[in-house]
Amino acid sequence: MIFSRDYIGYLARRTVKHLIDAKMIASTDLKVTEARVNAAMIEELSLEDRINEEVRVILDAYSEEMRKSGAQYAEMFKKVKTELSKKYKAVL
User: Fold this and answer.
1) Which tens digits make up the pLDDT trace of 12-68?
2) Are both 41 and 51 inside the same structural domain?
3) Residues 66-81: pLDDT tens digits?
4) Are residues 41 and 31 in the same domain?
């Protein structure tokens, strides 16, 4: 993940505060709202990590074929990652 969990927690708290101040949301329990926003942010920001791991698993399965055909790992990684991003409708 590109951000630390502490920083994501900070972003979640600031986001909730901003939304409440702007009267875009109302909350009776600020801590619960912050926790939910924090969880959603972590989920979204960790998507790329999960996609990268899935790409590695796929490429490991085809490593022998890639070696025989002379395919470059970095190039194949990028192609598979692009396809998985489309599959998961992720913007990376």
Assistant:
1) 999 999 999 999 999 999 999 999 999 999 999 999 999 999 999 999 999 999 999
2) no
3) 999 999 999 999 999 9
4) yes
Residue numbers of the domain that contains 24: 5-45
Asked if the structure places residue 92 within a domain, the reply is: no
Q: What domain count does the chain have? A: 2
Please tell me the distance from the alpha carbon of residue 45 to that of residue 20, in angstroms, as a whole number: 23
Alpha-carbon span 87 to 41, nearest angstrom:
20
Same domain assignment for residues 66 and 80 = yes
Q: Is the dihedral of CA 21, 27, 30, 36 positive or negative?
A: negative
How far is 27 from 15, CA to CA, in rounded Å? 13
Task: Classify residue 20 as exposed, middle or buried by CB count within 10 Å of its CB (0-12, 13-18, 19+).
Answer: middle
Q: Is 89 helix (H, G, I), strand (E, B) or coil?
A: coil
